[in-house]
Amino acid sequence: MRGAVRGGVRGGFGLVGPRRERHVVAAADLDGLALPVGDDGVVIGVDAEGRPAVLGVNRPTPYEVTLIGGLWTAQVLALRAAATGARVAVETGRGQVWSALAQAAGGGQQCVTLHDVGRVPPQGASAGSPVLVIRDCGMRPPRGRVVAGPWQSVLTLLPYLSPTAPRLLRNSSLVGVQRVSPDEAERIGALMALPGAAVESLPTLGDGVTLWCTRRDRKFVMTRGTETETGLLGAARRID
Which residues are 220's β-sheet partners? Predict the structure, then answer.
């Protein structure tokens, strides 16, 4: 009886899996499932149309992100990455501002670890244990010992546009920009090939708003803290 089911086992196919009702979406509704920043990963907020914006940090290929913005947004991303099952390694010279988050994340499991600048050990990232390294190393972050690789993404936080920013932006797969000065906006616009309207908006962005962009695509995203995130980190803010 080739292909028949005997005792719950199909020849050559293993155990019969659980039966579920089929999930069917009409073709006309498919556009509503599109996610503007990515297709899987961390929900970082909503776009101008109120649709969820997703940042896919768990990838089989190296992925570098630079965020010119505030600590609050980086910490929200850390919490949400940890909630997806990623391990988060924070390289920072101000461990005191990360310690409460590291203790609160993971429900008692050590999923967020803190390391001095230049002291991040190899993380052993894998498909089953992806890693996000957050580099909070000030205006002039040194070159990291732990770099982006398969299943290990790196997010570098810059409080403002610094002399190292052009190199970081050129090497990044994705750049996030929060409120900056008009002069910084012009320089970022030139580096990222932003249209004039986007450049003009950067000095006026509200707290929690980030322009996520590449040299071809861009999307404004509003990040709002959950009740738990706000209780731990406070309200959204651009200036630390």
Answer: 211
